[in-house]
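Below sits our specimen:

——
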Amino acid sequence: MLDALWARLLAIPEEGFDQVMADEALAEAERLTALVKADRDDVKARYCLGWIHLSRFPGLPEEEGRIALAEAVSMFVPCFLKGATPDLPAVSLPESVMPRVLISAALHTAVLAQESKEAADPDGLSTAANQWKLIVDATPPDDHDLPSYLHHLGTTLTGLYRLNEDPDTLDAAIEAFERASAVMAADDPQRAVALGSLRDALRLRYERTKAAADLDASVEAARRAAEVPLSSDTGDRNRARLADQLRGLADMFQKNAEGEGEGEGEDDTSEVYRELGRQFRQKAADLGSDDDLRGARRWESYASALEYRFDLGSDLESLDAAISAYERALEGTATGEDERAELMNSLAVALTKRFLQTSVPADQARYTELIRQSLATTTDAVDAARYRGNLAVALLVTSAQRSDLEGVDTAVDMARRALADLPPGHPAEADVRSGLSLGLRFRSQLIQSLADAQEAVELGQASATASEDLPQQAQRVANLAFSQTLLAQRTLQPAGLDPAISVGRAAVAACPEGDPTRFLLLGHLAQLLMMRYRAEGRPADLEDAIGTGRLALAAVSASPRHGELGSALLNLGIALQTRFEQESDPADLDQAIECFRKGRSSLPIPALKVACMALLASALETRGTRADRASAVRLLTAAAEGEEFPPTARIMAAREGARLQAASSRPAASDLLGEAVLLLPRVVPRRLERDDQQYAISQFDGLAADAAALTLADRTLPPGKRAVRALRLLEAGRAVLLSQALETRTDLTELGSEHRELADRYVALCTELERGSGAAADRTARAFAELQEQIRALPGFASFGLPTRGEDLVAQARGGPLVVFNVSRYRCDALVVTPKGVRTVRLRGLTYDAVTRMVDVFQQALRDCTDEDSDPRTAQSVLARILRHLHHRATYPALAALGHDRVPRKGLPLPRVWWAPGGRLGQLPIHAAGYHGLTPGRYRWAVMDRVISSYTPTIGALQHARQRAARAPSLPDRALVVALATTPGLPGTARLAAVAKEAALVRGLLPDPVLLCEPGLFTGPSAGAADLPTTTNVLEKLPGCTISHFVCHGTSDPANPSRSRLILQDPDTPLTVSALAPVDIGNARLAYLSACSTAATAGTDLLDESIHLTSAFQLAGFPHVIGNLWEASDGVAQRIAERFYAGITTRDGPDPGRSAASLHNAVQEIRSDNPDHPFLWAGYLHAGA
């Protein structure tokens, strides 16, 4: 059949066209066509058929001729695309049909390229690229379709490169794009498209070669694209023509899709045709779109290229140019368009980057507003989530620069919402998660939040392996390691840095020299090595950290940016100073000092800058010249006074600065520490969990004592002013958490009578503060602070909720004198407060070290008193000796200053004294100091023979207790008795044998008692759940009772004093200090804690905070609390309780106002029987009014 058709063609020169026009010829062609459709590779047959149809074309009517011509073209296209083959060594096509053949070949090649791209098929893309080359080579130079064919060739080659990563393929793509842009008219708008593609291909090559020429050429291509005129005669004609072609192609694709879809079901090809049709229609619509919008896209592309060049280490000129280009792009978009929202977001990101380099406030204000506008403009929920994630990162980095907690909170909240709104697996998800992790870590560093550190690690673990890009993965893994290290500092668990270091090394090895991101990878690796050195002490890690740090410094010095050079210098300085501490090589110290000096001026983030200042001061002090020490003092003073620095860093700097100049300039040292004390409340914001607050404040135990001591040593102030100032500092710097809680329990009687709405609002916010934690609690705290300011602006309420003024502190002495002890490394004093003022009593026989030794010896003796392997008599004698020393060195000088140096005459009542021992002295029984074994007489030398003692953590706490005591209860007297002899979980030997007797006794003496006790103690084994001594039942009953008596086991927790507890029926949920913290009982009068160690402050880092059960009950509203400093003897406890309640009982019922005197008398009676056994009676104390 094929031979017959060829014969007809060959006969044309001699016989004319009759041979091909015959009906038999058409029938033969139709039969051969049917066979060819089944064998697409039969090029020879198609070539023959093409000539048959073309030969018939001139002699046919118009419509039939058009069909014949189309058939000829459809047959010639595969032949053309095959090129030279063994069957057709030289394919020659008639020039008359070549334009149509090329257009049809382009259509088929576009389909192949699209299918291959979607299938990620490199062979298909390679074939498509070869076909585009054939089309390009066959197209005349002046053909108006040549630029389009070249552009398609470049696009196909670029897609192929992404799969095979063959450099030659990318080079060929770039050449095609360059040719496309070169053959276009200068004013042809489509030239901008070709230049945009050229920009992208050059950027791809830069990412492979890191050749600066490619990066610059990419930016130049984007610039040229942006400058192509939007409208011109040439452009308008070409655009109109191309739009018509695209619409025609779209129609053709749609028809092909319908043809391919015939039969039993559609195949993949039909969907490809439909997709191509949609794309070409969109492109046609875009060609007719507004010129301004097309211009905006070009400037956006140019801006993106410039920004990318800046990201890779270029100077600020590229970023400035990028911002200008984004601004021009923004001018071309209309309000309300999604394109405008995207542009605003991109411009905002660029402004954020510039702000990080220059700290210009205008950039900060503009980027914040732009992203907010983009959120309000976009109609796409996913885009909104991306923009919100960008805003979160922008707010985070700028808030970090200012140590702005509120800004960090906002950033964290935004990142959370963005993460929740992004669909799973979205490309932006890992970045947003990483940003959220970073924000939580930074917030944890600011406020010591353990929960934030834990969540930062969890998020970091999820994002660390989300990127296949090794440098990006290394950075995320390093950030995870930093979070893990922060968490390890709180939990004392190993951070596990080995994986992060391994990934960091691999990333550095894969990053070529000269890569602008190399210094980041080196810097992270150096930090990780230093962290592992500190954790594990490997000498090789220290040497490696120094070497890596030097490489990082060299890399960043090649293209320095503000802040990055400073970070490299800081990290290297730390490593060098660490090596000096190990090896004492002066060269290391000198180099470290030089690094810190240079780095200080290059660090924009306040937290890093103040750390660098402190490290430089430490290094200078170590080097030790007079000039060095003077410089160190200046640095620490500047750090302490810098409002922009985090309060924790300021306090630490103040403490070190005061230490350096305590001997030479006490006024300056005193001022530094005085300001530092006032910063303490900022270290423990209300939003923190209780444990986090304790961790934060524990770093500064003894700060107030040092500040007060240096103030008392400042001879530039009159003695009276010195004493008052020292007292105020102690009041502000001790029991900070307790004082903070008391602020929410201010007496609102006067406020409520004049401004009821404000008082109700105050109560509501106080309730929220007591219950909440986290960012929500922080917002409540801000509202609370604003309400306080509003109240203070009212006439007569200027001091509402403020720390007690000096004159108000003195006023509290009208109810009895106070003695506030202060033990510091600088000096020891007693501040004696009377209605006449504050007097300083220098305790020259007392030192900080002496008190520490006394406490240690005393605590050991207490343990020996109950240790079967120790001699209790010896232990008792040690206790008595310490009590004598304590009286001689501390309590007697204070009492003498009050005129209580003798026992009052017979018949005269003993005066009262309130002790505020604070710190380490609070671990000793001040009230029991003295000589107890002497013959009774007027000159008996013991505190309890001269005064009735009470305790208070601060004068403000005493004021609160007195206000509560003066308030008439709104309920009739009722008592709660909680009794537990056998504690679940404790051995039988721990049973308290006298509990039943003590509880029965107390029940008989107290009004309308409510009893919570273990089954079988009184009520029989069938006692209901509501009658058991559980924490839940206790907290439920407390508000309805004025007096509460607990007889059970108690314990103090040295690791966490807020977990000190009364052990009740449910040992897994004991009644802890923390559990009592939110409780506020308006009718409470007296709490008697007949349990062990209820007034003991365990541990050494929170002694100033007076965290124990006795103070917890005071905070809960009890103006009188009876507690014990150590383990109570079962039998003695019963006797003291009996005599105590007998002493407060009147004809009208119990009078808690007699509590201090009654306990004093009960203890004296026990002492009279056992004067040489202070363990039995010296631990009992009264706290409160």
Observations:
- Residues 304 and 721 are 64 Å apart (CA to CA).
- Residues 333-466 form a domain with the Serine Threonine Protein Phosphatase 5, Tetratricopeptide repeat fold (CATH 1.25.40.10).
- The chain has 50 helices and 16 strands.
